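$ fold --in a.seq
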Amino acid sequence: MGRIDEAIAHIEQIADGTERAFQMAGLISTLFKIKGVVLIVTGHPAFEIYANAASDHPAVELALFSGKPTPRIVLEVMRGQLHAKGGQGRWKIAGITVRLLGQAAIMYPDLCRDFNTDHGVVKLVPAEELTAECILAAGHPEPDTEAQTRARLLLINGLSEAFQMDWATLQTICTHPDFRVGEELAQMRAAAKKDVDAMGAHPDDVGQPGPAQ
């Protein structure tokens, strides 16, 4: 069995869905990086890593950060090395759905975080941008309880320093004309601060700290 097959077998044995997807993202990112392509975890999978939220349906969503993933490179990695099933940007590996997207739309690329996995480094979209998107979705165009919960978990983990939130940048994004949720940020942050204080600065009841950077 080759090293990649061994890595896949190891990932298949991980019981926690979020951790399994996180490790798979590390393996995929490493194989693409060898070919000069840097990918970044986006969307709900990124939220699950920052909030360390449980996932019953583990998935990986990877967008392009830099490089040129030609069709040949994609097939060499996904089908040739990882034995993935599927195509057209949607694949399946070891029971995990993997989506490969186009260029990532990131306002602050310098705030992307790199996290270590057993199989390589995973790059995540900025927590600040993800949090602002959740705050916006929580009330626009109508209230969304799921988005409210996601925003609350991200704010709690940021306040409890499970990861280092850049609060000034988050404020800047939320007050940007494209978002206009500065007041909502202030209200949700105050509520999250009460939750953190009530837990004694330990977010164990709502979300564990994410993987170490």
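$ fold --in b.seq
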Amino acid sequence: MFCPVGVNTGLIQLVGPIASTDLTGITVPRSPLTINFGPRSTPASLLGNRIEESSQNTCTYHTTKCSLVDIQIVKPVHTGYNLPGNTDTPQAELILSFSANSAPSSLSQVSGVLLCLPVYESSSASHDVYIDQIIQNDPSVATVASLQSLFYSSDQDSSQTSFGYRTCFETQDEQGNVHSNSLFVNVYPHGIHLTSSVYQSLFSMVGQSWSTYELPPALRGGDATVRNYTIDDDGNKVPTQIDPSGVIYFTPLSTCTEEFKNRFEYFTLPPKRISSSSSKISKAALGTCPTVNQYKCVPFDQLRDNQGGYVQVSDGTCLNDIIQQGKPIPSGQGSGDSSSGSASSEMSVADIEEIAGTVIAGALGLVAIIWIVSKLTNSE
């Protein structure tokens, strides 16, 4: 079964400028991703154009948990992702491939996630420490950067904004049957800036040539990918080339079209992160917490989360607006969910879980604050 009509297919290359007004219509503060990258004791290693990393690095897309299965540095894949005022051209692209821990039961569920960062040769470096340490290959480095440094150069860093889109690609098994699969792709236009000396060292290490991105076997079930196809007289796709190594086709999309506005989201904050060192809270770590009489009680509101923001369903619409305006609650994954079909008047299980989870998190957050305050008070 080929990918349905009217959705993103393949890896999307944008054509045309992106204006500030274009971003306004697709802007969402936070992406539906949560990253969990463990610390490293030694720098990672580069084998060919692939970086060897631990599968313990994970990410979660909505409720789909995924594990890192591959990192490649390849020739630029996502061209045209230039934010307003940016004219830099990437020399390469770093792609982190994650595979869903559970096999998807339908096309509405993703088989994996791609995090894509363009690599620039630049006069000033940024988000480069992870790559720089690979090139230096010095095991005596006091502090080793993890994958998290690609997205956060510091705790306050919020520069890694991103575009997100859902896309569909096809595979063909040994019996010649075609299967369609869904991916969530996150592209970070600011990417990684390497100084000329670091970039040239990296380019030399990969053999003075950038390879084409190959979808890892875990994301395609070991099947070959459809690399090229034609359309027959009946309007059906016919594969003309399949690729056992996992190369998939690119699809151009104009930024001036409704498809771009409906199928893309722009996230103004980096992905949420889980720190491996934040699982335990000690009294020492709470030493600068406010005193009991400095806490402020606020009324519990089912329409707001524990940060005071309005609860949003998966397409970014505020629950409050839906109730006030009598709008139907969408059942899909939002405007970036191009493969999930049109909106329904019924609330999906995913939306119920997401809203319930946010409300419960608010209640648990309040309970946690009360518990911490009581512990501090009793221990004095």
